[in-house]
Sequence to fold (144 residues):
Amino acid sequence: MAITVQVSAKTVGARRPVFSGWRVPIPPGSDGGSMTLRDLITAIVHHEVEAFNSRQQERRLARLMTAGEIAAEAERGKVIPGERKAGEPAGAEDAASTALLAFEDGIYIVFIDDAQQTDLEQTVFVGEDTHIMFIRLVALSGGW
Fold:
């Protein structure tokens, strides 16, 4: 049975979170709720890529618009009736590799239940009430 963890993300210097309260199912590992940080990040990325590709596929389908939807899109300045063209499906392995490299390069840090994780090979333990926070670090304007 998969464990569902809560995931949120912030950017240093921003008042509002990028997102919060996002629930992600983590596939069961060989040792209950323990896995390496590398495997945890990979599982989260794979889940999000799958969800992204699914949303892209749904957008490709022709849709009928209600009068309210037409009015709302007209208010935003662009009404897109019918089929929307989707790009190529995202690759989960490439996305996971990019996310792991970004962690190693210090682009973001990870906290699991308020404890900073610094090693991709470190074993972490997750359960139903686990909260994972990704914090994206932003370089100072003009260098260090």
About this structure: The first strand starts at residue 3 and ends at 11.
